[in-house]
Amino acid sequence: RYPYFRTSGSPSGSAGRGTIEMQAGIFTYAWDLEATGYDRVAGELAEAGFTSINLATAYHAGKFLMPRNPRHRVYFAEDGALYFQPDLSKYGRIRPRVSAFVSADGDPADRVQRAAASHGMVYVAWLVCLHNSWLGERHPHATMHTAFGDPLIHSLSPAHPDVRQYLVALVRDLVARYEVAAVELESPGYMGFVHGYHHEISGVDLDPVQQRLLGISFNPVEISGATEHGIDAERLRSRIAALLDACWNRGTPVMDAGGPVAEVSALLEDVEMRAYLAWQQDQVISLMGQVRDAIAHSSPATQIRHFASMNAAAPDESTRALLQTGDAILAGYALSNDDARAKAEAAQALGKDTWGMIRALAPDMTDPGQIAPRVQAWRAAGVEGIDVYNYGLMTDLMFQAVAAAIRS
Q1: CA distance linking residue 222 with residue 141, whole number of Å
Q2: Which residues, including other chains, have CB under 8 Å from residue 100's CB and lie 6 or more apart?
Q3: What is the pLDDT of residues 223-259, one digit of tens each?
Q4: How distant, in Å, are the alpha carbons of 150, 207, 290 from that of 211?
Q5: pLDDT value, residue 308
Q6: Which of 84, 111, 311, 375 could serve as 405's disulfide partner, Cβ 3.0–4.6 Å?
């Protein structure tokens, strides 16, 4: 159904070697495509050797500096928006925000799909799953909660039935109505406490242990569900709240000599705490299983790729189980050529297709000369493809270096 590989005889005319080229995708935003023109960008990307356009199809807010954009050099994105026209009858209590770029005349997903196909490429949907402050603000009951009961609106809870219904409806809606070669799933689970929120203010010096304790979610649905599985989640919540309160208001440390103090270590290693965290991870895994089944039912040819920043350490059991719900692993942005090889090896050991990733932006990369060796390192490691971040954020010098490396 989808031309994952392109020969030198493709409509783009991007090569003349008569060989099958490695897959290469590039992350893009609708505001860049709208400003420059979908067909113009697609032609430029095909000429550069890319085989897919990876559109941010469900995305969060941001302030973006765009060196090459002909309309805006600084852009503030809509928060938590979809860049396709959803069928709202398919959604439940949580209904999506639709981007202003979607109108009766069409939407970015359809325009990307058509422009990509006309140049011998495919459309890949880059989906930010549960990181959605716009929805979290409107549905705080369905977000992560701290041990004090405060909603963390930047992260929807994967255990909440409203959230699960929303995400499954979203992917089913998308792949049933558009020609989607692959979905790349970002933030499918718990986001943790630290987010970098707009005007985020904390008068407390939050060390890593405090951040970890604040990032353990106790949504009432999670407490109830874990309790039904024989876990005293309420007692765990109370213990964490007491430790943090004593730290903040009585000066009792939770961290010493670079690690948690004995009382915190005992809590984190407690059998019930480990069972509670495992129960939460099971919610993430089962949700991704539902997403997999929804995509398989609506569009069997659509591939599922999970973002997973691999490293030399073997992933834990829950991470392996999560990655098994997909077809491919996006192995993470390599910080060096050696890191690319190590990430590829770690991902390939899990028996899934592996994609390399390059962030062609500062601070990861500041010299165009870094690009070609990094692309070659991923290729030498035997990856199926390479995803590059990000079309609109790169300078022209970096984009030209990426294009030359992909074509080589």
Answers
A1: 11
A2: 78
A3: 999 999 999 999 999 999 999 999 999 999 999 999 9
A4: 14, 6, 30
A5: 94
A6: 375
Looking at the DSSP bridge assignments, the partners of residue 304 are 183
Phi-psi region of 6 (alpha: psi -120 to 50; beta: other; left: phi over 0): beta
The DSSP element (H or E) to which 28 belongs, if any, is: strand 23-28
Q: Provide CB contacts within 8 A for 167, sequence distance 6+.
A: 129, 130, 287, 291
The distance from CA 85 to its chain's CA centroid, rounded to whole angstroms, is: 21
Whether 154 and 133 have beta carbons less than 8 Å apart is answered as: yes
pLDDT tens by residue, 274-302: 999 999 999 999 999 999 999 999 999 99
| Sequence-distant (≥ 6) Cβ neighbours of residue 242 within 8 angstroms | none
Question: How far apart, in whole angstroms, are the C-alpha atoms of residue 211 and residue 404?
Answer: 43
DSSP letters for 78-106: PTTEESS---GGG--SS--EE-TT-BTTB
Rounded Cα–Cα distance for residues 293 and 300 (Å): 9
Beta strands in 157-314 (DSSP E): 182-186, 255-256, 259-260, 303-307
Q: What pairs with residue 25 in β-bridges?
A: 52, 387
Cβ(372)–Cβ(405) below 8 Å: yes
User: How far is Cα 56 from Cα 46, in angstroms, rounded to an integer?
Assistant: 18
Which residue has tokens 């990655």? 323
- Which helix (H) or strand (E) covers residue 240, if one does? helix 233-250
Find where tokens 């949504």 sit: 219
Residue ranges for the chain with pLDDT beneath 70: 1-21
β-bridge mates for residue 186, sequence order: 128
Residue type present at position 181: A
Residue 401: predicted pLDDT: 98
The per-residue pLDDT for 21 is 62
Q: Cis ω on the peptide bond leading into residue 390 (within 30° of 0)?
A: yes
Please check whether residue 204 is in contact with residue 244, taking contact to mean a CB–CB distance below 8 angstroms. no
User: Three-state SS for 386?
Assistant: strand
Enter the tokens of residue 298.
């609506």
**3-state SS, residue 276:** helix
Q: Are 321 and 354 in contact (CB under 8 A)?
A: no
How far apart are alpha carbons 361 and 393 in whole angstroms? 7
**Residue (of 233, 227, 223, 214) closest to 154 by Cα position:** 214
363 to each of 54, 62, 297, 399, how far by Cα in Å? 22, 18, 41, 15
